Input
Amino acid sequence: MLPTRDELLRVHERIKPFIHFTPVLQSSLLNEITGANVFFKCENFQKMGAFKMRGAMNAILQLSEEEKKAGVVTHSSGNFGQAVALAARNAGVTAYIVMPANAPSVKKKAVKDYGGLVTECESTLKARVAESERIQREHGATPLHPSNQIEVILGNATAAMELLSEHPDLDFVFTPIGGGGLVAGTALATHYFGTNCKTIGGEPYEADDAYRSLQSGKIESNITTNTIADGLRTELGSVNFPIIKALVPEIIRVTEEEIVQALRLIWERMKIIVEPSCAVPFAALLKEKDRFKGNDIGIIISGGNVDLSNLPFAK
Amino acid sequence: MLPTRDELLRVHERIKPFIHFTPVLQSSLLNEITGANVFFKCENFQKMGAFKMRGAMNAILQLSEEEKKAGVVTHSSGNFGQAVALAARNAGVTAYIVMPANAPSVKKKAVKDYGGLVTECESTLKARVAESERIQREHGATPLHPSNQIEVILGNATAAMELLSEHPDLDFVFTPIGGGGLVAGTALATHYFGTNCKTIGGEPYEADDAYRSLQSGKIESNITTNTIADGLRTELGSVNFPIIKALVPEIIRVTEEEIVQALRLIWERMKIIVEPSCAVPFAALLKEKDRFKGNDIGIIISGGNVDLSNLPFAK
Output
């Protein structure tokens, strides 16, 4: 029932001309601190600043010519809205991005700069879904989901595929878990392209739906979403959960303090700008470092779009 | 009278085992904005976070066995102190680092973490020189200068040598100008390893001693040093100025506002953490972009050691 190895290879070929093969960085100091050999796959250097570009690009490129003519629609105030706008522009497709009227103007501007048509609505999920459905009806636009759509998941998988093509003997790849699209794609990649490589998820205690879902065997909801890792407040879906259940052996939860500490280490020691969400898998490794000592570990640095005016590094 | 091409090659061979061959990054957006093809040589990813590691390493490795036994001394509260401490540790040499007692404790800690022996003194240049001379007398330690010493300049040259080894057809390499050690080394590298490649300096109006020195033909002093680019408040010296005069055709000055704007562009668009000093050459390119349109341009990103609690990105 899983997508095949060949499907993954075809997806990478399809999106390659439109994405960066992002660099992998290492830090001797962070290796020392963790006792592991850590390879950071820098999707913060990806086009539009996040891995979401991969899934959006794949979802749009595999549309029929007719579907392409009618455009695509998504509701997202985050990276996925920007990714769909840019991926659609690359493919000559119209992108309707539904955003709450009260979304930060800088985020609306980013979508517009990438050529997306922003439609504003109220800030509730209900209003966003309604507006998205209106656009589907009126324009025939195809809806795209940020994490619970197989084409998006397969696109996301290509980050870990690239990482494994350069470092085929990794023991583990750590990713953050939000909506589940990145961890599911990564798990497919490690399954097919690793040599006994497992995918481990990192999740905030404050938004631990995936941890509890893996425990109970069914999709659970978040109880709180009070986390600095704003990209991880979403929940698993029916498409990615079966993949996660089959291929992700473990999810490690971390506190907000552990996230900020890991974030600061990455900024200060690696000199790269990463979103708080990216620090979650590294925080998970730090927390359980005794268990992973001596291993070769990949970490997907998922994105780097942060508001520099509002950083958690107070004096 | 210039050092030779062979000398530069020998220096690179000598320090290679102790430094990173740092990555070169590009940004399609910054290429669009400048109209040039810009290659950022990321010395912020260098060991201890700055190009200074190269010069310090070379200066220490070329000491005699006897000199190595007696140790080295420098007075610096910035990157060079840290670089000497780490380079000395790599070579099994004792490093005495003279720092003002009122230097930030985080900087003293960094030097100590790299194994340097910190000696505190008053915050005046006179006190620092006196303390350094006492250590030379008492321990026989060799003094190292952050910018006005030929071994340091030759070590610094290796950053541009690596850049040109990957991109041999660059038209220009831009560097910041502080004490003159980086721009002089870079100018030697472009002279010997470029194909008609020139080195251009970027300097703050608020610390424009080098610009005025090039105009007058003799070493001038800074009138103000009121710049955010704290690495560039120092002045040229008798060893690097003749090289600069011979090989650097132009220095472009920029305002504080231009520096902060360029800094923000690099952070936001390239997702890398760079010191304000690094933004100066990029600000210079932005300012004069019409003249450099269509050219292949290298920029030495000199370092990434910033205080995250004190950033110039206010709301």
The domain at 5-49+150-314 of chain B is CATH 3.40.50.1100 (Rossmann fold). Chain B has two domains: 5-49+150-314, 53-143. The interface with chain A takes residues 23, 25, 28, 42, 44-45, 47, 49, 264, 267-268, 270-274, 304, 308-311, 313-315 of chain B (CB under 8 Å).
